[in-house]
Specification:
It is a single chain. With 324 residues, this protein is an alpha+beta fold. It folds into two domains: 2-87, SH3 type barrels; 91-321, Fumarylacetoacetate hydrolase, domain 2. It is 20% helix and 31% strand. It has helices spanning 25-33, 41-46, 48-63, 67-75, 104-108, 183-186, 199-203, 250-260, and strands spanning 2-8, 11-18, 21-24, 79-81, 87-88, 95-98, 121-123, 128-129, 135-137, 145-146, 149-155, 171-178, 181-182, 187-189, 195-197, 209-217, 228-233, 236-242, 267-270, 304-309, 313-321.
Length: 324
């Protein structure tokens, strides 16, 4: 299923995209079973496989209904035109666990980091930003605002010390996160001539985690290590890669993070970004690329960032000046 969050006159809603329609799950439950269904993704995840199966049944009944019933389902708010809704971030994660330096081409374009384990840092869930909503460029925070296209893994089943072989049993689905980063906060040159990383301030500031536009359940993406990723700034291509290029794939990341914390339903693991970030061309912060430097390099008010992952969709956000 392709799960989408949105809001209408009834409040926050959870729906399923089917072709050019959205099936409102709460309304579909009322039509199919006589009682309401989930209105947000965390409630659906918490309900486990039984609730997920009931959602699929309610969706199937709605979209396969006889033509004579379509007008009633539309009037009851069960079936909505996809073009008529504005998607919100599909979930507000309970935690965002992030892996950095997980593609060789990104490692190669910046100062070296240890190679034994994935980077481990956190992003605040409050930073999640809806598709289409602005990302604020605050000059008091950064003059080097960058974007990162990342496959985000949504956890659906609790676990600790999960083996790589059993990792997929704990994955509910996948979405996109744009790991917006303040490079001049993330990395600084030490007087001794080497670079130091400060992932807390470099990754955590208002609007720094656009997410969406949907969560695709794991059964729809049986192989998450074969998805094309791309990004664009004002329509001009920046990043281009495949999740097959990850150093640590989905299974390894679930295993790694579950070593330290109990993974709970509604946690998100963001899996790192490929190369061709703005950082890679910026020698001031250790960037090593020398050819094909885009101009302007870093994001500016008025820019539009589009990040795409195959089978999930596209996440687009404008850059605006922060209110002082």
């Amino acid at each position: 299923m392709r799960l989408v969050a949105f809001q209408d006159h009834r409040g926050s809603r959870l729906g399923v995209e089917v072709d050019e329609l959205v099936v409102d799950l709460d309304s579909a439950f009322r039509s199919a079973f006589g009682s309401g269904g989930p209105t947000d993704l965390l409630a659906l995840i918490d309900g486990g496989p039984v609730l997920l199966a009931a959602c699929q049944q309610a969706v199937d009944r709605s979209v396969q209904s006889p033509r004579r019933d379509r007008a009633r389902l539309e009037a009851d708010g069960v079936l909505l035109d996809l073009a008529s809704i504005r998607p919100l971030a599909p979930l507000r994660p309970r935690a965002i666990l992030c892996s950095g330096s997980n593609y060789w081409d990104h490692r190669g374009e910046k100062p070296p980091v240890p190679e034994d384990d994935p980077e481990f840092f956190l992003k605040l869930p409050d930073l999640v930003t809806d598709p289409g909503d602005p990302v604020a460029l605050d000059p008091k925070v950064t003059s080097k605002l960058d974007h990162e296209t990342e496959l985000a893994i949504v956890i659906g089943r609790e676990g600790r010390h999960i083996s790589a072989a059993k990792a997929r049993q704990h994955v509910f689905g996948y979405t996109i996160m744009n790991d917006v980063t303040a490079r001049d906060q993330q990395i600084r040159r030490n007087p001794g001539g080497y670079y130091e990383y400060f992932l807390g301030p470099g990754k955590n500031f208002d609007t720094a985690a656009p997410m969406g536009p949907v969560v695709v359940t794991a059964d729809e993406i049986p192989d998450p290590q074969g998805l094309r990723l791309r990004s664009f700034v004002n329509g001009k291509p920046r990043q281009k890669a495949n999740t097959a290029d990850m150093i640590w794939g989905v299974d390894a990341l679930v295993q790694f993070f579950s070593k330290f914390v109990t993974l709970r339903p509604g946690f998100v693991i963001s899996s790192g970004t490929p190369g061709r970030t703005a950082w890679g061309w910026d020698a001031e912060v250790g960037g090593k690329r020398t050819k094909d430097r885009p101009e302007p390099l870093y994001l500016r008010p008025g820019d539009v960032v589009r990040v795409e992952i195959e089978k999930i969709g596209a996440l687009e956000n404008p850059i605006v000046a922060a209110h002082q």
